[in-house]
Specification:
Elements (H helix, E strand, L loop, with lengths): L1 H26 L6 E8 L6 H10 L4 E10 L2 E8 L6 H10 L4 E3 L3
Antiparallel strand pairs: 1-3, 1-4, 2-3
């Protein structure tokens, strides 16, 4: 019984510690993030957003990418990235190289 209790205690401490470290790093400014939405052209099916997302995820500095096909050849991509490592121009170039030209969505 003592072994199981020790395991549970150690397991709890490890996970509690990981929950404390991540917010501390973000609060300290260790992770600089910016999020933009791109208008994406040439999308024709439900598979197109997967190609766009994967192309964006390969760009160094991209933290998260998601894309959606809206119909009639258009869609969008929402990209979270580190602006110290990558800019919007590199993001639009990545989608264009994948066959889907994009522009920064204006509000």
């Amino acid at each position: 019984m003592l072994r199981i209790t020790n395991f549970v205690l150690i397991f709890s401490l490890v996970f509690a510690g990981s929950w404390l470290v991540a917010p501390t790093l973000q609060a300290a400014g260790a992770v600089n993030q910016e999020t933009v939405t791109l208008d994406v052209k040439n999308m024709t099916c439900a598979m197109c957003p997967i190609t766009v997302r994967k192309a964006l995820e390969k760009v160094p500095g991209v933290i998260k990418a998601e894309a959606k096909y809206e119909g009639n050849g258009v869609g969008w991509a929402k990209v979270t990235f580190d602006p110290a490592k990558v800019g919007v121009e590199a993001l639009t170039k990545a989608t264009a190289n994948a066959g889907y030209p994009s522009t920064l969505k204006t509000p």
